[in-house]
């Protein structure tokens, strides 16, 4: 069904031009109107319409007025016969198009094979490229079936060409080792027997020595194949990822069935990507293990000392009693004289001594001693072995001592030494300074000062961890922990002007600083001038309590009619099963049309595939699982059938695409009179989900008090999620916020992002300023926020703000690092997608505070935060807007528990891809709920009587995210032939 059009679209695409009016001269009635509509449709889409349903009603009415014909006569236009054939010939001649013949189809196939399909394997995008080529070549696109055949043929030819090229690059011995991975005697993946291929495919366990040793075994097995390093140098990353996904889901017997070039290529692609992934996992295990050693030692000592630490009262009286008893009976035994003189006897004296020992540096030394024992007795074996497996490098000479220290550790790894040899050169780095110095260096008498090997190793691993986390030290062969220079666009200098233009930033750093400075002046001046009139705000010197005092917002008027509206929805449609909402959303949006098999084999009938996909999405999105859905459902699909479709078709990318298309369909379906103009702001926040912990991703969260993962949502003002991300509990929410705002993939243009305190920081303000969208946080401790001055030498510029003012912004640092901020730190790299946001932001943390670009970003962030806070404090509407936006994402989080009810809401899997799929399917279900509710509300409000009852407060609080009429539980009855009675489909 054709979507609704607004006036701007009608004017741009459906206005008849002078030369087009000449074509319709002499035509009358339905022929005149039909010809004009077919002509404009062809110009707009590049093909002829297949029938009346493809022409929007608004376009029919708009064109009918132009040609002076009643729109009602369009129903008389004939869609077959000599008249429409003549019209098509006229339109082709006018536009210079020709019909697609066999020769054209062959040329198009060859062009797709060589120019598109070697870099893009998604059929729907290849199809778009084909239609674009047809338009360029002035060829009328062939019929849909023929287009599909051309696309399939091009994809097949390109795959044959690519796989033959890759297989030819493999040395004979490497090819033999690859074949051995899937030899006849190798068990299939589901037999329970471990093979080399099954080992390489397996997921990592939790943070432990055993997991580390297992991952090193995987890495050795993968390296033993001996793949050439540049094997896939000219292969597009998306193609490589598709091969990896295909090889991952196929068993050895299926892989053997392919032509040999394809088998070798799939196995090589899997090994190539797994080498990088396993390397990343080992780096993460190293970071987590070193942290765990310290954390556990700290916790163990704390528990021991806290249990023993009982403050002994009355020390003066105890001392007097001990002294008096000792003087009276100096020759008697201590046990007979001193102990009886003290209340509590020997135990009190022990507690007194322990209290003294637990003060000052004694606690720290105790922790360090416990850490040393834990490292030496358990973790050392894995960490030292890991140094042999990974190659560490740095682009900064400052960190050379840590790398030299690692070489020293490796050289003496197997020696039984307490101290390093006297003549050995021992590099000094930050890790051995401070509290550790007394444990690292020991006075050995005549031998002088010696270095204790085990303690030095601990300090070196701790220093390595800190530098790895900010990517000052990186790992050869890794992906996430690779050389940070690879995260940046390599063509920046060649396209410098275009990069700046894309971000709408001036090339001159002075112009950037001047604009930022003037905004600071304007906002601070406005706040200073308006402060006496702001009844909700006080700024005064309050010492430790902070200078700013902001009163809470008044409660907004409660919407009176929204409950009645929800009841009306339930009255009209009854209790709607959630599976029916998902089915209706899928049928209306057509979001399953582009789903193809990951393995490229075992094609199912479209209607069967659609049903099984819906059941799999429902099983994952409700967290009930495929077995429960197959066991309780009335649909004729068994558990093995649904699992097959999940394994071969329902990937993370497919689920994300489905959710995105439902979101786009919702935006297109909204009626402005009901929902208002489209929003350009989203709210983002995280939700904690409990998860199985036998993997390295699940972590303890101090705020939520449990082990699990975080789901970071981006939800726009009318309750549609445009992005979801699965992140660890220690991941940066600022990075997740930027990632979602920049790479959500929907048609929405994000210009502002509401966040809570955890989603904002000075770095966050700096990044968003460079990227060109507003960070709009609700700052928890806003009373202590400091406002920075726009310039030095103006001490009395804002007298009323003096208690809250801090130092001036350091504009010289911003000017010096301006080009680097655009290129190296964030903006250009994040927008162009050369690396993940987290990978780039990892370089700019407090651990790496001396980095000049980090300091510049901080200064930009301080200036931008000053602008925001000054505007926020004086603008009550902005405060309310941010609160309302964050309430939307809180409502989304509440809906999670209603839909994701299976297994107590915990993610019951240790596989990262399964966890991501669960989250994305949950997003699909909620997006379907919002989409269908949007249509239901619009249907109700289409009645004038209902529309007139809503007040401004009702419209402000109106949301499609409600579930009082939804049944998420019970038997799953999937009937693709029954439809919900909504606008555009007949009511039953």
Poorly predicted sequence stretches spanning 5 or more consecutive residues: 305-310
> What is the C-alpha radius of gyration, as a whole number of Å?
34 Å
Strand element count: 16
User: Per the principal axes of the C-alpha atoms, what is the gross shape?
Assistant: globular
DSSP helix fraction: 55-70%
Distance between the amino and carboxyl termini: 19 Å
Decide which structural class fits the backbone: alpha/beta
Question: What is the mean predicted local confidence, pLDDT?
Answer: 86
Q: What fraction of the residues are assigned to beta strands by DSSP?
A: 5-15%
Q: How many DSSP H or I helices? A: 41
Give a quick account of the main beta sheet: strands, pairing sense, barrel closure.
6 strands, mixed
List key phrases describing it.
16 strands, 6-stranded mixed sheet, 988 residues
Question: What can you see in these coordinates?
Answer:
It is built from 41 helices and 16 strands. Strands 8, 9, 10, 11, 12 and 13 form a six-stranded mixed beta sheet that branches. A two-stranded antiparallel ribbon has the order 1-4. Strands 2-3 form a two-stranded antiparallel ribbon. A hairpin with a 4-residue loop joins strand 10 (706-716) and strand 11. The two termini are 19 Å apart.
């Amino acid at each position: 069904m054709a979507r609704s059009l607004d006036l701007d679209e009608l004017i741009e695409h459906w206005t008849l031009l002078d030369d087009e009016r000449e074509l319709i001269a002499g035509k009358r009635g339905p022929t005149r109107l039909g010809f004009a509509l077919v002509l404009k449709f062809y110009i707009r889409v590049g093909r002829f319409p297949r029938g009346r349903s493809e022409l929007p009603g608004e376009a029919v009415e708009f064109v009918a007025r132009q040609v002076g014909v009643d729109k009602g006569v369009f129903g008389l236009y004939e869609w077959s016969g000599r008249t429409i054939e003549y019209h098509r010939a006229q339109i082709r001649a006018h536009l210079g198009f020709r019909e697609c013949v066999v020769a054209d189809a062959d040329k198009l196939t060859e062009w797709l094979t060589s120019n598109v399909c070697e870099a893009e394997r998604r059929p729907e995008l290849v199809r778009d490229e084909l239609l674009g080529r047809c338009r360029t070549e002035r060829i009328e696109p062939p019929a849909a079936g023929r287009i599909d055949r051309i696309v399939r043929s091009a994809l097949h030819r390109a795959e044959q060409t690519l796989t033959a090229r890759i297989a030819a690059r493999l040395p004979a011995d490497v090819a033999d080792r690859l074949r051995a991975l899937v030899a006849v005697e190798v068990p299939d993946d589901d037999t329970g027997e471990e093979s080399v291929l099954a080992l390489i495919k397996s997921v990592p366990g939790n943070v432990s020595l055993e997991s580390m040793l297992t991952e090193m075994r995987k890495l050795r097995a993968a390296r033993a194949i001996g793949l050439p390093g540049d094997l896939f140098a000219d292969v597009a990353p998306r193609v490589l990822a598709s091969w990896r996904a295909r090889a991952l889901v196929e068993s050895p017997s299926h892989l053997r069935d392919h032509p040999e070039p394809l088998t070798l290529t799939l196995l090589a692609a899997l090994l190539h990507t797994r080498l990088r992934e396993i390397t990343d996992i080992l780096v993460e295990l190293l970071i987590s293990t070193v942290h765990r050693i310290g954390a556990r030692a700290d916790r163990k000592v704390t528990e021991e000392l806290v249990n023993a630490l009982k403050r002994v009262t009355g020390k003066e009286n105890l001392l007097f009693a001990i002294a008096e008893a000792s003087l009276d009976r100096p020759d008697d035994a201590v046990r007979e004289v001193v102990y009886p003189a003290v209340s509590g006897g020997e135990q009190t004296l022990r507690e007194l001594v322990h209290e003294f020992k637990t003060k000052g540096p004694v606690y720290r030394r105790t922790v360090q001693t416990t850490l040393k024992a834990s490292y030496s007795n358990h973790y050392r074996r894995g960490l030292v072995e890991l140094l042999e497996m990974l190659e560490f490098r740095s682009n900064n000479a400052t960190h050379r001592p840590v790398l030299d220290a690692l070489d020293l550790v490796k050289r003496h790894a197997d020696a039984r030494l307490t101290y390093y040899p006297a003549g050995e050169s021992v590099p000094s780095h930050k890790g051995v300074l401070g509290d550790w110095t007394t444990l690292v260096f020991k006075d050995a008498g005549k031998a002088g000062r010696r270095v204790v090997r085990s303690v030095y190793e601990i300090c070196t691993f701790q220093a390595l961890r800190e530098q790895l986390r900010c990517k000052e030290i990186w790992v050869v062969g890794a992906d996430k922990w690779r050389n940070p220079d690879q995260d940046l666009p390599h063509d920046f200098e060649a396209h410098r002007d275009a990069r700046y233009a894309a971000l709408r930033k001036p090339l001159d750093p002075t112009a950037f600083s001047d604009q930022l400075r003037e905004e600071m002046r304007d906002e601070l001046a406005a706040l200073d001038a308006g402060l006496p009139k702001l009844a909700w705000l006080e700024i005064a010197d309050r010492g430790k309590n902070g200078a700013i005092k902001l009163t809470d917002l008044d409660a907004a008027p409660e919407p009176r009619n929204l409950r009645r509206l929800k009841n009306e929805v339930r009255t009209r449609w009854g209790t709607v099963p959630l599976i029916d909402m998902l089915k209706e959303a899928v049928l209306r949006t057509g979001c399953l049309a582009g789903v193809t098999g990951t393995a490229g084999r075992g094609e199912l009938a479209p209607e069967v595939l659609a049903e099984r996909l819906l059941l799999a999405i429902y099983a994952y999105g409700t967290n009930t699982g495929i077995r429960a859905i197959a066991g309780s459902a009335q649909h004729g699909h068994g558990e093995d059938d649904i699992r097959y479709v999940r394994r071969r078709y329902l990937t993370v990318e497919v689920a994300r695409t489905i959710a995105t298309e439902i979101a786009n369909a919702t935006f297109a379906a909204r009626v402005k009179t009901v929902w208002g103009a489209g929003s350009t702001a989203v709210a983002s926040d995280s939700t904690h989900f409990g998860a199985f912990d036998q993997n390295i991703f699940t972590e303890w969260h101090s705020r939520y008090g449990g082990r699990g993962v975080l789901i970071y949502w981006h939800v726009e003002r009318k309750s549609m999620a445009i992005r979801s991300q699965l992140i660890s509990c220690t991941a940066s929410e600022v990075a997740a916020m930027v990632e979602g705002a920049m790479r959500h993939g929907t048609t929405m243009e994000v210009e502002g992002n509401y966040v809570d305190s955890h989603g904002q920081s000075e770095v966050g303000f700096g990044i968003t300023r460079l990227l060109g969208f507003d960070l709009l946080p609700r700052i928890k401790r806003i009373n202590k926020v400091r406002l920075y001055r726009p310039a030095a030498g103006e001490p009395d510029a804002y007298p009323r703000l003096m208690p809250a003012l801090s130092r001036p912004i350091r504009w010289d640092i911003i000017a010096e690092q301006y080009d680097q901020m655009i290129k190296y730190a964030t903006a250009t790299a994040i927008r162009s997608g050369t690396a993940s946001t987290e990978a780039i932001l990892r370089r700019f943390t407090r651990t790496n505070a001396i980095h000049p670009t980090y300091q510049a970003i901080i200064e930009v962030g301080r200036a931008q935060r000053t602008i925001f806070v000054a505007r926020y404090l004086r603008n009550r509407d902005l405060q309310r807007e941010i609160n309302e936006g964050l309430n939307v994402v809180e409502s989304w989080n509440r809906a999670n528990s209603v839909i994701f009810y299976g297994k107590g809401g915990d993610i019951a899997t240790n596989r990262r891809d399964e966890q991501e799929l669960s989250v994305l399917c949950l997003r699909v279900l909620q997006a379907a709920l919002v989409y269908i509710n949007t249509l239901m509300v619009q249907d109700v409000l289409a009645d004038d009587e209902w529309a007139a009852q809503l007040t401004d407060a009702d419209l402000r609080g109106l949301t499609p995210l409600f579930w009082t009429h939804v049944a998420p539980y019970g038997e799953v009855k999937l009937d693709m032939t029954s439809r919900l009675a909504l606008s555009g489909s007949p009511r039953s």
